[in-house]
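Q: My labmate handed me this sequence with no annotations at all. I'd like to see what the chain might look like in three dimensions before we decide whether it's worth expressing. Could you predict it?
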Amino acid sequence: MDAYLDIETTGFLGGSSYPTVVGIAVDFPGDWSVRQLVGDEITVDSVLHVLEGVTTIHTFNGASFDLPFLAWKPGVDLRRRFEHHDLMHSSRRSGFKGGLKAIEKALNIPRNLPDMGGHDAIALWQKYRQENNRAALDMLLEYNREDVENLRVLRAILEEENWNLD
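A: Here is what I predict for the chain of 166 residues:
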């Protein structure tokens, strides 16, 4: 079974940074569901619970960022437990450049929040934590949900076009 994973954090790997949202979409036959772990909900046990029954995790730049970050905090090394497919590498081999948002744009994959990026996600988390601003958290969760759901769309397009998907 497949899962699509994307994380939001307070910054780069190291120092006092930590994951703020872990979005995981699980694609069991006939059952697509997205689960988002937020703040203190992000634990080794909760991540593994959401991934129960999964064999392969799909990410975008996850080999360099998402999976190493989760191995550091909260300390769950998903690379040792699951197969991993980094869609960034498949996209590069297929001739696409840039990050996930640029590739989505090139492939006409729609977004509700097309102008948001990683720095915006950090600012939304800070606004939520400092002001208890639920609207900021809701927007952050929507941003993360779009990332996770569009990973599935990107993978389907790459497969459909037989573009270097391995």
